[in-house]
Amino acid sequence: MPQHFLSPPFGLPEGRDARLVKHLEDDDWASAITLLRDVVTPQTTTWKWLVLLAYVRFRDAADVMPDELVDASREAVQLLHRAMEHGAPHDEVAPFLEAVERTLDQLSRGEEALLARLGPGDDPSALNDEELETICFLVDRSNPARAAKLFAALAARQGPLATAARTRAALALARSGAFEAARPELEEVLTQDWSKRPLSDERLALEAAETTLLEHASGEEFVALWHLAEARGKALAFPFPSAWPHQERLFARCLSLHDVPRARALAQRMEEERLELPRALAERLKAVRLEQV
């Protein structure tokens, strides 16, 4: 059989070829993305690396992170055009590029149609709960303050999405820079019963609230919040912190507070749980182990 144009060897540095092949065989798109992002830079001209990153980024969103599919498709299109500029075989790349562009066009049209149904002043009365939730996430990409108001409108409907919407409204408000305004609702989140909400995305919302509060705490308040979050995570079989972005944010917060033991424990956990770590993060973890912080 003829060899596929993306077959190894890839020529990746430091023995990454074998690791990437294993990630691709396991459909471990997140690890593949991490590995390739350490190699692909704005100056990269190796077209095979560009196509590989486009592929794993698109597959990760399509298979695992559908909320990111629009952004992933846009990035993939840019990467594929760069790859063809640097010699990627057009006849081989074109079918994938066309599929990504078709997906992006369909998603963009759907988003535009949905956004067009928002009434004057972002009146969501013409939308059902699921449609409004989708719009909230769309708006949150670029305007978290606006998203906070729309999430609050969804929460006010008191439907099955209300509790999570209240949490996400507070998180969006905090991301907009208005943490003090968001604090009371974020603290209220910690008092709620999450035991009957088994979905991981809902528990991630709880963890995001805990992470945001911890990023603005210090001293005894920080320690108390950390212990509470750990206890809640254990009770929910969702060890705190579980999400990779939350782990990295809290690792940085521990370092800023000179909480070396907690930072070292997080570093060990990240190294044990992940098959790939970004180079910059790996170097910081190594510094913590050596107490060079």
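the 2nd protein, sequnce then structure:
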Amino acid sequence: MKNKFQYIMAGVGITLLVILGALTLLLPQVQAGEATENTDGEVVTAVESTQSDSGDIVPLINQNEPEQAANITTETAPATIAAAESLTESPTELPTEALLDTIGTKDNPQTNMDIVINMVKEFAQQQEETLLYKPGWLHTVSQPYTPKDQLGSENVNSAATGELVPREELVPDSAQFESWYHVDERGSYSEAISLVVSSDGTIHQESVLVDDQWFNLTLQARGFVQAQYQMRNLSNQVILPISDVANSLDSMQTQANVKMWAYLDNEQYIVTVEESYEQPLEDSIQQTTILSGKIIYSIDASTGQLLSTEVQLLNEDGNWHLREKWDHLVTEFMPGLPEDMAQLYANALSAVGKEQ
């Protein structure tokens, strides 16, 4: 099975046209960037995880971290956050040399994978304690950016009518992916709505979760076949974006030819993971050979929130190229839906014959 990088490099990454529910960043146990192909040959996916990347997600593989590394990280993670704050609030109170050695600096990054992964797990735990395990709505907003030369197929083909729907009608430039999940005390959800919204507020795609099935109402209204607008929900357990990163790093640690490093920079914890390939991959989008892939995560060191996910590729020309970037604009908990969103959700349920 392909790993996180290989899906992105093969052109089945997180810049995909059709959403059938939640961002993959909130779908656990889904292989990174993995898309399914329906009986009509149309690629359909729930648009980062990350994972993937992105965001996309890979299954969590529990590791037996050395006890010493685990203890060091547990003891210094709160101090790391305090150090980030002190650098801003009082520049004269610098962190100790031992602390900097643990968290890493831009000139001297931390390269011990166990320490880096456990640090990210601390951030994930911080976010989970803040946002989950209480009844209400989890709200996420992410914005992708993909250079024009990195875009794949420009159209989505209706298997029913043969209609070609242009990319910009479904995912316009500067589109935002917005999702709301009705969560309970266990961090589970059975009600949700996801949107692709342009900068002027126009909804370009709308999907709703009904009876454990995601319905893309936009494609349904345009006469697409059921296999293209409906998909079973793969999991009802919320995985926060930062928790997805922790899971992904944990899994990538076991892969060959992977290196990882991290450091604190201006109140952001920057984590980079890079994989080189013994057998280079063929990029179906660029029609070139890819030698290595790199994902860069930026995390707010004071809150633990994931801020951005950036994917870069090393091509045969010897240069790194930006494949795509996701800015994670909002990850918040709200006790109830705002009035306009509540009305939109009610209308979506009615559209699939389900009343609240």
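The chain has a mean pLDDT of 76. The two ends are 40 Å apart (CA to CA).
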